[in-house]
Amino acid sequence: MLDRRDNILFDEIDKDGPQDYSRTYTIAPADLARHEVVNLGPVSITASARKGDLPAEYIAEGSTRFTADFACSRCVEPYPFAGFSNFHLRYRPHPQDAREDAELEITPAELDIEFYTERAIAIRDLAVEQIQLLIPMKPLCDDNCLGLCPQCGANGNREACSCEASIADERWGALLGIREKIAKKRES
Ligand SMILES: [Zn+2]
Ligand SMILES: [Zn+2]
Predict the structure, then answer these.
(1) Is 129 exposed, middle or buried (0-12, 13-18, 19+ CB in 10 A)?
(2) d(CA 35, ligand 2 centre) in Å
């Protein structure tokens, strides 16, 4: 039987009315399948669940809080991140067939709708979903992060390397080479 502290059980709401939940989970960064997540502290989630307005609809609202270290997508250095989200979710029975599916109109205001097939929602899964929403597509330690030098790998935020000058030299060298070839062709 599912633990009623770790799962929003729709049958329980039907029987006993609205329910409150407050849990803290240890979630491994590997579970998130995002290599940018270096460390993830305990994840706190509180939620209240009740019946919705439609038949078989349930509503869960609450918040998630955690701290983490993300690797910057430019300089690869880990930096601290504090995550907080409020959520407001509507769970509706999963449409049984495509015809019903086609009749469902989801307007932008209803984008928080999720369809369920089982009458239980694991609160840990809910927490993982909220963390996923909070991880930026390209985490940055700072909007102005200078990143790594593509030549020597030096962190531009900490040290100035002299690669740019030598790249310019190489280009100049290549240009001279082309000139020489052109000159040779003319001679022949
Ligand atoms: Zn950075
Ligand atoms: Zn460099």
Answers:
(1) middle
(2) 25
